[in-house]
User: Fold this.
Amino acid sequence: MGRSWGRQPFERPGVMSAPRGSRSRGARSWQWRDWRDVRPPHQQALPAREGVLAFTRTGGLVCVVNLSPAPAALPPYERLLLSSGPLDADGGLPTDTAVWLRT
Assistant:
């Protein structure tokens, strides 16, 4: 069996994979559920197609992340605040790119 080409994370006490520790309160799956249940009320998910994560925050901030294989349309916005990469020629959000917008 060959060696892994990437570095493997070190073992941390109390951190388990979801299958092994799914019933443990400290497991990653529980951490996600805890965050989901206590996220601030001033954050709201926006409708988006499969593979695109979009949410709004108070103050007119919108975050859109495109994890799909095709470019995604952006909601109407006043200003592009931050982008992890350039927008495509049509102003769409390329795959594996995230933006913060002011609406």
